[in-house]
Amino acid sequence: MASAHFRAGVVIVVRHPDLHRIMAFERMDSPGSWQLPQGGLKAGEDPVAGAWRELEEETGLAEAHVVARAAFPDWVAYEWPDEVVAAKAGVNNRIGQVQKWFLFDVVDAAIEPTPDGHEFRAWQWVEPAWLIAHVPEWRRAAYERVLSTL
Q1: 55 contacts 76 by C-beta, under 8 angstroms
Q2: Are 79 and 96 in contact (CB under 8 A)?
Q3: Which residues contact 128 (CB under 8 A, 6 or more apart)?
Q4: Nearest alpha carbon to residue 106 among 55, 48, 143
Q5: pLDDT by residue (tens digit) across 21-62?
Q6: Between 69 and 1, where is the model more confident?
Q7: 140: how many CB neighbours lie within 10 A of its CB?
Q8: Where are the beta strands (DSSP E) in 47-115?
Q9: Structural domains in the chain?
């Protein structure tokens, strides 16, 4: 689903057994900024395979810890703010991302992720509305669109 100006990626929502809370991760490079595990797809990579790869790389969670439940039916696109475009556009002149979102459930409430220390520094269980309010504003519409369906 990538295009000349949008990087294709995945986003993973990990839900608590209470079915109300989700895992939120604090960014290493921006304390106080929270988000879901996400990342770009490799060339030719199936989105669900990319979701599993990104989840394990960023959180240490794997098939023993979570069950894949659903995928949001649409690809969700958003544009980056100018400062992000300047930093990430590169030779492809990208202006944003288009992402496939996946819902995973932890198999036990005692399971805890291990933030990778590269992208994420901390994690917590939160209500979706809390996370929507704590993601960068330029991501907020995408988060609201998907998380409001939980």
Answers
A1: no
A2: yes
A3: 22, 147, 148, 150
A4: 55
A5: 999 999 999 999 999 999 999 999 999 999 999 999 999 999
A6: 69
A7: 15
A8: 66-71, 76-79, 96-106
A9: 8-147 (3.90.79.10)
